[in-house]
Amino acid sequence: MKKRVWMIGIILIILIVIVIGGIYYKYVYPYSGNAPEITQEELECGTYYGQYNQKKPGTPDNWVHDGEGTMSATWHAPSNTNSPMDCNEEPPLIGGCAGVSLENLQECCENWASENDIIHIQCLGGWEIKDNQCSWKCETTEEEEFCGMNAASSCEDNNDCRTGGCCGELCHDTSLSPSMCVDCNWKDCYNASKYNLSCKCVEGQCIWN
């Protein structure tokens, strides 16, 4: 008798969990992506780009979702035959960040990079949308000066000089190893071309000039 009661209790708990999970997946999870309010243009078009958890507030209850996990995932009216592209909507952002508000863009792109083992350049900065995909942008300041380094090695002409270091930040002669390491964390001020500099032989020494 006790065993039967335990079995019935376990079954009831499982059923409750399934019901609660179903309610969450249908009515709560679709809005967990913090997508912006649906626009009048999207309502008239009958569709918009977005993953399942990017359902926009104001979306009619009978709209359905297709293409989960793809760049062309959409929410749309059941009988809709339009594509968001047909209504001149911007194509989905590579990385599944379509419809994500600016305040949630950093988290969205970071998750996308993590899930796809994408490592951005190591510098202080943040995510932005460039060429329709998540792109890491390093912070720069107009006052920042070139921070490449000279090895103060001797030379006779420019052919005796070359760049080295993890980030190409060193200017030295050809006798030193090109993999000579100083700092393997990229800094935007290492970008010699940005400052119109090159590694040259000047007055018998290899220096940035």
Principal-axis shape = elongated
Find the structural class using helix and strand composition.
alpha+beta
N-to-C span: 91 Å
Strand line-up in the sheet with most strands: 1-3-2
The total beta strand count reads 10
How is this structure best described in words?
With 209 residues, the protein is of the alpha+beta class. It has three domains: 27 residues; 107 residues, no CATH class; 60 residues, no CATH class. The protein has three helices and ten strands. Strands 1-3-2 form a three-stranded antiparallel β-sheet. Strand 4 and strand 5 form a beta hairpin. It is elongated and about 90 Å long.
Outline:
The protein has 209 residues and is α+β, with helices and mostly antiparallel strands. The protein folds into three domains: 1-27; 32-138, no CATH class; 149-208, no CATH class.
Relevant terms:
209 residues; alpha+beta; 3 domains; three-stranded mixed beta sheet; 3 helices; 10 strands; 19% strand; elongated
List the helices and strands and how they pair.
Elements: H1 2-28, H2 40-45, E1 47-49, E2 64-66, E3 74-76, H3 102-115, E4 125-130, E5 133-138, E6 149-150, E7 161-164, E8 170-173, E9 199-202, E10 205-208
